[in-house]
């Protein structure tokens, strides 16, 4: 249970492509009266967190923790899909690359787990304190609580999208059983609840920026819960879902509301992104791909070809202009995917990462129409998405399901959606071993990892409950 504290500062601003959040760490000069009398200026006593004047810093610390977790957990996740391919020297990456996903001792999933847990815990703790300030009428700025509800919703979505079980109830020295695989849908319910409270605050204060992000987060939480519900939990051997399409009325309504808010703000191609820098938080995924060269962009997306894990029979160097994934209508690279790829490969470990977007809202609306048998509605929604790049309109070819799969693949790259898309559509990642659990057990996700299994007294005493 990673339950440390953070004193970090982050502010967001509306850029040309939407919401970018710069994650800035508070720094200062240490005060000392002797050689051994050194104090860390970033240490904050827990009692100080009960001071309402710290509300903004607490909200900023929650954002910093969330952004850091997102930049770390994306790496093993993307390697476990076809988005990234292992080319380096660490065998645990190859294990993921070949489709072994639920191994609790995988060192890289294990390294990510505490950061995800920290982000979730920070969000809950900060929401509780700031909501208490608000109830007593001493919260200096309601926006701090509004945005902390957003960070909490996103943290819970991250947990539900990536893990098959999670220790939510344990807190510091208080132990509790994890949710259990069959109950993990509850994390999406929490995300919806947090987003709903945040939306109410944003509407009361006229905060359209946060209302947009919170509405999009609620749409995603409802949608991803419906995707989660397509599979048995824990995952078992069997075929992919017979009916993989999602038509959740609440998710669709929120997606349409988010699109209307984005249009009203003049940002139809809105994106909620974390921006990283050398002076603040960096991304593990950027470091592993661009600096350590432990993996490359997957060969489904770019050239050169790679036919085996490790790419010993193919190239390991990827150029930005080597895109293999082509738009099925224009037979040209998707402009947004091209831009995202260039930005990611060109920024070492500081490239921005997207967590929500108007593009995903269009895809939720399109899929709901297709699931309902409304092909004209599907076509309209897909073409609203394509209009963001002035692409040739879709007119029925390829088949709607194939078009949906392509648009999700191209527009949600490195956004934590790919694994369950592969599972539900019955698509095998190019380097999954034929007998791997990723092939045989659709819906398999990351487990509670070994660090938590050994550190959490409940898991030590009840190991089967933590599987």
Itemize the secondary structure elements and their pairings.
Layout: E1 8-15, E2 18-25, H1 55-80, E3 84-86, H2 91-97, H3 107-135, H4 142-162, H5 185-205, H6 208-228, H7 249-264, E4 271-275, H8 284-291, E5 295-297, H9 335-345, E6 353-357, H10 358-371, H11 375-386, H12 400-411, H13 418-424, H14 437-440, H15 450-455, H16 457-461
Parallel strand pairs: 2-4
Antiparallel strand pairs: 1-2, 3-5, 4-6
Helix pairs in contact: 1-2, 1-3, 1-4, 1-8, 3-4, 4-5, 4-6, 5-6, 6-7, 6-10, 7-10, 10-11, 10-12
Described by the principal axes of the CA atoms, the overall outline is globular
Q: What's the CATH architecture name?
A: Alpha Horseshoe
Q: What amount of the residues lies in strands?
A: 5-15%
**Assembly category:** single chain
Largest sheet: 4 strands, mixed
Taken in chain order, the helices and strands follow as: EEHEHHHHHHEHEHEHHHHHHH
Helix percent reads: 40-55%
CATH topology: Serine Threonine Protein Phosphatase 5, Tetratricopeptide repeat
Q: How would you state the average pLDDT, rounded?
A: 90
Number of strands: 6
* Arrangement of strands in the largest sheet: 1-2-4-6
**Helix segment tally:** 16
Structural class: alpha+beta
The tally of structural domains comes to 1
What is the highest CATH level, the class?
Mainly Alpha
């Amino acid at each position: 249970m990673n339950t440390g504290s953070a004193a970090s500062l982050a502010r967001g601003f509306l850029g040309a492509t939407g919401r970018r959040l710069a994650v800035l760490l508070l720094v200062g000069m240490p005060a000392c009266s002797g050689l051994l009398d050194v104090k860390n200026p970033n240490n904050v006593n827990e009692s100080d967190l009960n001071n309402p004047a710290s509300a903004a810093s607490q909200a900023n610390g929650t954002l910093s923790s969330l952004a850091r977790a997102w930049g770390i957990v994306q790496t093993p996740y993307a390697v476990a899909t076809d988005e990234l391919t292992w080319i380096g020297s660490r065998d645990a990456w190859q294990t993921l690359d070949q489709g072994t996903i639920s191994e609790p001792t995988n060192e890289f999933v294990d390294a990510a787990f505490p950061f995800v847990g920290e982000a979730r815990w920070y969000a809950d703790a900060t929401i509780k304190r700031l909501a208490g300030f608000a109830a007593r009428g001493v919260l200096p700025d309601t926006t701090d609580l509004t945005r902390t509800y957003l960070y909490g919703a996103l943290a819970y979505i991250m947990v539900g999208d990536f893990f098959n079980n999670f220790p939510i109830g344990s807190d510091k020295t208080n132990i509790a059983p994890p949710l259990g695989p069959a109950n993990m849908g509850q994390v999406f319910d929490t995300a919806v609840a947090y987003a709903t409270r945040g939306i109410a605050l944003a509407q009361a204060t006229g905060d359209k920026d946060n209302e947009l992000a919170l509405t999009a987060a609620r749409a995603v939480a409802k949608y991803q819960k419906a995707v989660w519900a397509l599979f048995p939990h824990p995952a078992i051997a069997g075929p992919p879902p017979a009916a993989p399409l999602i038509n959740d009325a609440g998710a669709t309504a929120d997606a349409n509301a988010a699109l209307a808010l984005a249009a009203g703000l003049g940002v139809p191609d809105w994106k909620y992104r974390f921006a990283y820098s050398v002076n603040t938080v960096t991304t593990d995924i950027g470091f592993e791909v661009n600096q350590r060269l432990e993996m490359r962009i997957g060969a489904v997306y770019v050239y050169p070809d790679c036919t085996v894990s490790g790419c010993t029979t193919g190239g390991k160097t990827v150029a930005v202009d080597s895109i293999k994934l082509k738009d099925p209508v224009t037979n040209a690279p998707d402009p947004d995917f091209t831009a995202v790829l260039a930005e990611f490969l060109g920024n070492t470990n500081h490239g921005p990462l997207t967590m929500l977007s108007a593009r995903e809202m269009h895809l939720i609306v399109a899929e709901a129409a297709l699931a309902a048998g409304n092909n004209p509605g599907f076509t309209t929604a897909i073409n609203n998405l394509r209009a963001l790049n002035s692409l040739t309109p879709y007119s029925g070819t390829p088949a709607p399901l194939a078009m949906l799969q392509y648009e999700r693949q191209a527009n949600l790259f490195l956004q934590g959606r790919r694994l369950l898309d592969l599972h539900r559509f019955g698509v095998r990642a190019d380097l999954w071993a034929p007998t791997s659990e990723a092939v045989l057990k659709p819906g398999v996700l990351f487990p509670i990892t070994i660090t938590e299994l050994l550190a959490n007294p409940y898991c030590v005493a009840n190991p089967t409950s933590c599987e």
